[in-house]
């Protein structure tokens, strides 16, 4: 038997059903006995939605009103009535089992499953298997229109069924016509047989997907990097809560079939989740349905859904590590990530920390420590648990103490395991030193400060807008922009935030630009243009907020850089000119020299003129975008006189030897010297006596005679 099912939501209708997250308001169904070609009673049931505000299209097509829906039953009660009435009709027809049949995929996959998942109640088993009437019709009549172009009306017209939609209530005509189409397909000329129903996965399957034929182990979490993934099956979800797990993402896409091991959470450069995930579906049809969930909500956050490529998925999820493959060889395991472990922690220590209430699958075999290529521990580990209960018990130990450190525990995925291992194992043993970290801004192109309103702020830029687009937007006023005066503001992920600042040659020019360009269109968006001061511009570039409520300071708390109070926000950190000599380019990027050449060469000194002592530090959440902001930076060559003076000096400089200087990135904003000393506990520091190098004031010496937040010796 079939149960022909039709439904409607309070929003979009037809091909966009379910794309706007609106709730179900109507269900109509009828039982059809395929053997006797008899039908049961036709049932129509209104559904009371939480939000009774109906769209114009819904009102026009369905003729329903909020008043009528207000008297209906909620969805859970309607589904109970559906099961009872279907069972009753089957008994009358002498049948016991049935399969649903709907007009396309949308009602089941895009409406019923997502809505019941959000409302936290389970659908009965019958909603996990159904026939798509459009596909069955095209199989029976191959010369008909493509499946995606089929509708109930076009199928009826193809068969020449003379039914008038206006004669019946909304929903009743659709079900009656679908039943007539089914009977036509069962006629002697066609003898169609319903054999292969569509299926909806009950839950997301973790673990391996396919065996790697060249090895005796499985390739995890999805496949080997040498394999290929169909780009028509992959999407990128953006804006996820950072604590989201693969199961949370699968729940967001409830009703759609995700490939086994097909959720790959993306990590940032510090190994933490960045709010994005790549999801691989079983086929392109499921992927296309997933794209329709763009800006649907996960809790209070809307999630952006975009197309992605198979190469991107493999870059995040693929790998060839035998160790990881063996670790993940047990299927249907819950994976927990541990972070912050002491470097001396052993397997016994971790098992003792977890305790008997959350036994690890396989004991020591269920632990995977993450290490650098040279074997040093990173402080991360992954643990396998055989059931959700054990995993929940483990998560209760979040931030409990092991040794002298608190341990963080999070849900993880097979893709994250591989991604973390790939990241650490690809880290070079001797990393290349970055470019000098304390650049000097050349005097001709300093970023403006002060209260003169000679700048403009552009708000609401398209995210794809570049410097050329802004210059075209400015038109004739481009000639009045200061050199290197365009500053695009990026967010914490390094993407355009939609804001930009432009330094004009005078306050009058800034006023004219604001008047001329305010709410002028750029591409498909209008852009707001406001006159502002250099102080306000620097305020936002350094991470503060500028709105109608006034100024709010940026989230920087670095003790060596931040002023004690924000009486007027400082945009640059001033370091004494003597201290600047400590950070020579040669110390950061040492060159290889022969012993003879080194002995004969005079001491190298980097010269910093007085006007170049003002240093611009980008150490907060927002950064001006290269290449036009900040302006070109570099070191200033020392004049011959400075070199001669250094060569005749009686003191002996104490500079770090090549390879003895390290740079720390990704420090929390509130990190202090104590935390840095604790981080390097057990390592020997270089001598901290800088008195022989330069004359320092007591205040400068107290700053320099300790490891720095940005440089450690």
TrEMBL record:
InterPro entries: ESRP, Nucleotide-bd_a/b_plait_sf, RBD_domain_sf, RNaseH-like_sf, RNaseH_sf, RRM_dom
Principal location: nucleus
Keyword Cell division part of the UniProt annotation: no
Keyword ATP-binding set for record: no
Domain RRM: from-to ranges: 334-414
Alphabetically ordered keywords of this record: mRNA processing, mRNA splicing, Nucleus, Repeat, RNA-binding
GO BP terms in the entry: mRNA processing; RNA splicing
GO cellular component, one term: nucleus
SMART domains linked to this entry: RRM
GO MF assignments: RNA binding
Subcellular location(s) of the protein: Nucleus
Entry superkingdom: Eukaryota
Family: Belongs to the ESRP family.
Entry-linked PANTHER family: HETEROGENEOUS NUCLEAR RIBONUCLEOPROTEIN-RELATED
Name this protein carries in UniProt: Epithelial splicing regulatory protein 2
Organism: Erpornis zantholeuca
């Amino acid at each position: 038997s079939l149960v022909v099912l039709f439904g409607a939501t309070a929003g979009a209708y037809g091909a966009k059903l379910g794309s706007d997250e609106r709730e179900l308001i109507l269900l109509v169904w009828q039982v059809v006995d395929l053997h006797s070609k008899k039908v049961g009673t036709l049932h129509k049931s209104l559904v009371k939605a939480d939000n009774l505000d109906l769209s114009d299209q819904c009102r026009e097509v369905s003729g329903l009103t909020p008043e009528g829906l207000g008297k209906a039953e909620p969805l859970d009660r309607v589904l109970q009535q559906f099961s009872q009435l279907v069972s009753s009709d089957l008994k009358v027809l002498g049948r016991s089992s049935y399969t649903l049949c709907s007009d396309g995929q949308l009602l089941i996959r895009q409406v019923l499953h997502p809505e019941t998942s959000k409302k936290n109640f389970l659908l009965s088993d019958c909603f996990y298997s159904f026939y798509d009437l459009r596909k069955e019709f095209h199989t029976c009549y191959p010369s008909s229109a493509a499946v995606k172009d089929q509708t109930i009306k076009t199928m009826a017209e193809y068969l020449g069924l003379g039914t008038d939609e206006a004669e019946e209530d909304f929903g009743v005509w659709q079900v009656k016509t679908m039943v007539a189409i089914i009977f036509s397909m069962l006629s002697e000329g066609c003898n169609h047989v319903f054999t292969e129903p569509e299926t909806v996965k009950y839950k997301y399957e973790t673990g391996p997907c396919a065996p790697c034929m060249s090895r005796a182990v499985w390739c995890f979490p999805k496949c080997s990097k040498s394999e290929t993934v169909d780009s028509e099956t992959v999407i990128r979800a953006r804006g996820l809560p950072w604590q989201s797990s693969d199961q949370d993402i699968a729940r967001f896409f409830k009703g759609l079939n995700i490939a086994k091991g097909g959720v790959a959470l993306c990590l940032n450069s510090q190994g933490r989740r960045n709010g994005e995930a790549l999801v691989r579906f079983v086929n392109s049809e499921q992927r296309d349905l997933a794209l329709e969930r763009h800006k649907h909500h996960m809790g209070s956050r809307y999630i952006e859904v975009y197309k992605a490529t198979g190469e991107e998925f493999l870059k995040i999820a693929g790998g060839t590590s035998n160790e990881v493959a063996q670790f993940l060889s047990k299927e249907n395991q819950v994976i927990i990530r541990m972070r912050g472990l002491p470097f001396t922690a052993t397997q016994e220590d971790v098992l003792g920390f977890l305790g008997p209430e959350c036994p690890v699958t396989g004991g020591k075999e269920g632990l995977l420590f993450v290490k650098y290529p040279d074997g040093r521990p990173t402080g991360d580990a992954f643990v396998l648990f055989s059931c959700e209960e054990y995993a929940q018990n483990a998560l209760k130990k979040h931030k409990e103490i092991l040794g002298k450190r608190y341990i963080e525990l999070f849900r993880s995925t097979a893709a994250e395991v591989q991604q973390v291992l790939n990241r650490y194992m690809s880290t070079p043993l001797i990393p290349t030193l970055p470019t000098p970290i304390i650049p000097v801004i050349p005097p001709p192109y300093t970023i403006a400060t002060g209260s003169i309103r000679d700048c403009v702020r552009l708000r609401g830029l398209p995210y794809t807008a570049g410097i050329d687009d802004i210059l075209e937007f400015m038109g004739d006023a481009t000639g009045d922009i200061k050199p290197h005066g365009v500053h695009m503001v990026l967010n914490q992920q390094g993407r355009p935030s939609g804001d930009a600042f432009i330094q004009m040659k005078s306050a009058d020019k800034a006023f004219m630009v604001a008047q001329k360009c305010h709410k002028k269109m750029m591409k498909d968006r209008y852009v707001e243009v406001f006159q502002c001061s250099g102080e306000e511009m620097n305020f936002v570039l350094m991470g503060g907020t500028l709105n109608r409520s006034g100024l709010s300071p940026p989230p920087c708390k670095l003790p060596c850089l931040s002023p004690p109070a924000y009486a007027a926000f400082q945009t640059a950190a001033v370091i004494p000119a003597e201290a600047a000599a400590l950070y020579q380019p040669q110390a950061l990027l040492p060159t290889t020299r022969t012993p003879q050449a080194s002995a004969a060469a005079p001491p190298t000194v980097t010269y910093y003129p007085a006007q170049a002592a003002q240093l611009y530090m980008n150490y907060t959440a927002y950064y001006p975008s290269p290449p036009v902001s900040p302006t070109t930076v570099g070191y200033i060559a020392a004049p011959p006189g400075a070199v001669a003076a250094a060569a005749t000096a009686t003191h002996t400089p104490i500079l770090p030897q090549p390879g003895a200087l390290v740079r720390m990135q990704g420090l929390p904003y509130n990190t202090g010297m104590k935390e840095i000393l604790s981080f390097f506990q057990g390592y020997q520091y270089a001598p901290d006596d800088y008195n022989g190098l330069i004359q320092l004031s007591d205040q400068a010496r107290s700053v320099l005679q300790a490891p720095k937040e940005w440089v450690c010796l």
